[in-house]
Amino acid sequence: MKYMPPPWFTVQALDDMTFAISEYGHWEKVHSFLVIGDKRAALIDTGLGIDSIKRITDRLTNLPIIVLTTHVHADHIGGHGEFDRIYVHRDDADWLINGIQGLSLKQIRKDISRDITRPLPGSFDPSTYRPYQGTPARLLTDGDTIDIGNRRLDVYHTPGHSPGHISILDQARGYLFTGDLLYSGTPIYAFYPSTNPEDLVNSLERIAKIQQVSKIYGSHNQLGLEPDMFMEVLAATQYLKGNDLVKHGTGIHTFKGFSIQF
């Protein structure tokens, strides 16, 4: 029998109209999410750009797709060039148009190509890799609601990891997509000069007080966290503030289920 290498993407159904599209062969273990409504679909981030994510979304829906960008870092905008309608928060728009701040192209190429555990697509060449740059179709602001047809997505501006980072709440199902604001397994990063530790902690406090969350979907590592983690998040933010730790250079702070690096 001919050996067939594992596919680059792993697709997991969260329900019959919501899919996680994961890249477990890369050290960052990135998740993008396809949320399907009656009239159109929303793709929350487009992954690393190592393989074509559009080939996957084309199998899952024939509806028009808008891309909701949680933030403009290379591992979340890799497939943006495959789609026509890109939405991004206004505070990250400059990074999308003119290039990501705080990371050199050399460093981005190094990060994108290291610690790979699955065969790479033949089309991928890390030496020529460039993060997507382009003009968004829409600038998002805090409180926006996006109707994709019998399904409404609320936008929360949750800066810290980047100036225009957003989290997205699926009203009906209670799914909260937190991008790089909250996930488990590896530290949540706010140590680059382009990050803001105070904003990150305030954003964590804000999402932890959303009442109708049934599941938390961060963009890395474990797929799906339970909302009872929010109690630990609130305790952690109070600890960090109370001990004057919310600033660059204080290191990694570990809590039950997650950690933060300033």
Textual characterization of the structure:
The chain has 262 residues and is of the alpha/beta class. The protein has one domain: Metallo-beta-lactamase, Chain A (4-Layer Sandwich). The chain is 18% helix and 26% strand. It is built from five helices and 15 strands. The chain has a seven-stranded mixed sheet with strand order 1-2-3-4-5-6-7, with helices on one face. Strands 8-9-10-11-13 form a five-stranded mixed sheet, with no helix packed on it. It has a three-stranded mixed sheet with strand order 12-15-14, with helices on one face. A hairpin with an 8-residue loop joins β9 and β10. α4 runs antiparallel to α5. It is globular, with a radius of gyration of 18 Å. The relative contact order is 0.14.
Keywords:
262 residues, alpha/beta, Metallo-beta-lactamase, Chain A, 7-stranded mixed sheet, 5-stranded mixed sheet, 26% strand
H/I helix tally: 5
CATH class: Alpha Beta
Oligomer: single chain
| Class derived from helix and strand content | alpha/beta
Say which CATH homologous superfamily is assigned.
Ribonuclease Z/Hydroxyacylglutathione hydrolase-like
Uncertain regions: pLDDT < 50 for 5+ in a row?
Answer: none
Give, in spatial order, the strands making up the sheet with the most strands. Answer: 1-2-3-4-5-6-7
User: Roughly what is the average pLDDT, rounded to an integer?
Assistant: 95
CATH fold node name: Metallo-beta-lactamase, Chain A
